[in-house]
Amino acid sequence: MKLAGWGRYPVAECEVVEGRAHQDVAAAIGQEGTLIPRGNGRSYGDAALNPRLTLSMQSMNRLRSFDRDTGVLRCEAGVLLADILSVFVPRGWFPPVVPGTKFVTVGGMIAADVHGKNHPDSGTFGRHVISLELVRADGTGARCSRTEAPELFQATLGGMGLTGVILSAAIQLVPTETAFFRKETRVARDLDATLALFEDSGGWTHCVAWIDCLASGGGRGRAVLSRGRPAAIADLPVELQSSPLQARSRKGGRIAGIIPPGALRRGTVRLANAARYRRSVADVGPKLVPYDPFLFPLDGFGDWNRLYGRRGLVQYQCVVPEQNAARGLQALLDRVGASPASPFLAVLKRFGAAGEGLMSFPMAGYTLALDFPVARETLDLIPELDRITAEHGGRVYLAKDASASPSAIRAGYRHLDAFDALRTGSGARQKFSSALSERLAL
Amino acid sequence: MTASDSTSAPKTALILGATSDIARAIAHRLAGDGYALQLAARDPERLAREVADIALRFDVPVSVHQFDVLAPDGGVALLDALPVLPDIAVSAVGLLGDQQENQQNPAAAERVMRTNYLGPAAVFAALANRFEARGSGVLVGISSVAGDRGRASNYVYGSAKAGFTAFLSGLRQRLARRGVQVLTVKPGFVRTRMTDSLDLPGVLTAAPETVARAVSKAIRRRRDVIHVLPVWRAVMLGIRLIPEPLFKRLGPRNTGKN
């Protein structure tokens, strides 16, 4: 069947098998040729595509146990973050790290070692994984953790499914008093002011800035920074204090039914951006918001990826290390500004220190994510951005990537040799591969 | 309305054939509505994952029971073993079988017929009597649009579902004034393990969750017969209206080029 990532680019005709139980996974691995496991298909590019065999793990989605004293949840890899939230937030528990969408699986979050807006505070999702159950190239299961097979554990965090098939995991949830965030908004007129705002946001666990890349003249690079932290019961108005864990969660909409596909054009987005900036200037006060729109603003738009048109979208996400951040980010934004390619969305977040995953993306610095419609000028621009990222000691995020070259990846991921060696030694290299791993010669 | 609105004790739903994808979706929906669950299947060990999962997700009591739809006792042993007589019983038992094999091998055809008709009808007969005596209950039979008209491609399965549909219809009329609701569900194509190998048309194919939502709503509204996707009502009306002399010519050709 035809498969693609969230960006709907590239598309590949893939043989798909549904893994419904451990035996199905072992049987798929036992087949001739290579395979890649796939969760909910929310990586953007070609990370979860293998034309020979793509093993869908969505049906392996049972919760196994939850310890009310320690907050440790054991569940199968295909469980959706959305399900964890809907089950455990009303009971006062929250996953410490969530990405920008809740429609991702636990296995996918581990394989991409995802981060959230609170990386300096809480690290990646992998930091909160206690152990995981992996089916290896020979079909046998292995439990790995920081004490059992630690090398395999570290290679699997951020390992993009290339070390084996994650069957289940034990993850740490943290207690929460409410289902709300305190949030406030600040505006910045340029990149330097934006970075200063990030550094001046102590006490706010969650920070994210939206950058207007399409404004003309002096407006280019202006930004709106939102910062938030989990609300305590005392932060809630009295009428919410009696049921602080009940926040109405929205249904995913179907934006494609309302707005025609491909409606995003440089002109319309420029107007929308300007309106957004003006609205934010006028509305900077503190607010109390349910966790869902605060953490997953785009989920409310449903299949928003279709707005980028028939050819799909690519998201370019890179990180630039702290010491080169101002220079590197400015160089990236300048290069984008000089290009005819149109980034309709640009998002900046701060990262804390790198975690333990060999192939994990975050490192201390700033991460910039740019959403482009797929077009000739976009695909011409991305190698340029790769070059600027590499020059400043950064790297690109494999979960978003659809077009990087092997050399661009080698430059950015310092532990790639160790990752290669481990995969070669365990036989994973001959068994687990994706369109991404073949393109990047992983 | 949730089950706990009307009475203080939680209401109970029995799911027969609980290992199927449709059964799991219905179990989730009813647990979400507040029902305690009794899951029955031939191989209860396969339900261990479901019990932990449902109990965690919905915080309702879940019990597991051995039930073989082909057993000669017609499910009486199961009903006697249940700790309480359920408020709702759902039959999600089904076996598509392979039409080619069913044509050649009478034992295979009989297995399909017994699994889709005789077995579910027997256990519903026993449940109907107990519900009637109590004066309340809901019987939900997952039948099929395949039972609306026999077609060359799946008439063994279809004839068994036709029998089950007719059985449910008669049961409904008999129990109409006895406080017992009988709901016939004709899902159309559903993307499940049973249909993994089939290439199904998207607009006619429902997700198991969609079936479950429709079932839950139909129970609340005390409906009689539902198609999960409304388009199926029109499709099957059209198929039933085709005159037999024409219908027989629309079947597969066995001679000439393929």
Structure report:
The complex is a heterodimer of chains A (442) and B (258). Chain A has 442 residues and is α+β, with helices and mostly antiparallel strands. Chain A is 29% helix and 23% strand. Chain A has an eight-stranded antiparallel beta sheet with strand order 16-13-15-14-18-19-17-20. In chain A, strands 6-7-11-9-10 form a five-stranded antiparallel beta sheet. Chain A has a three-stranded parallel beta sheet with strand order 3-5-4, covered by helices on one side. In chain A, β6 (63-66) and β7 form a beta hairpin. The radius of gyration of chain A is 21 Å and the shape is globular. By secondary structure, chain B is an alpha/beta fold. Chain B has a single domain, classed as NAD(P)-binding Rossmann-like Domain (Rossmann fold, 3-Layer(aba) Sandwich), CATH 3.40.50. The termini of chain B are far apart. The relative contact order of chain B is 0.12. The chains are: A alpha+beta (442), B alpha/beta (258). The A-B interface holds A 18, 20, 62-66, 83, 87 and B 49-50, 52-53, 56-57, 193, 196.
CATH class of chain B: Alpha Beta
Question: Which series of helices and strands of chain B comes N to C?
Answer: HEHEHEHEHHEHEEEHEHH
**Largest chain interface and its two residue counts?**
A-B, 9 and 8 residues
Oligomer: heterodimer
Shape of chain B: globular
| Count of discrete domains of chain B | 1
**Distance linking N and C termini of chain A:** 25 Å
Shape descriptor of chain A: globular
How are strands sequenced across the largest beta sheet of chain B?
3-2-1-4-5-6-9
Strand line-up in the sheet with most strands of chain A: 16-13-15-14-18-19-17-20
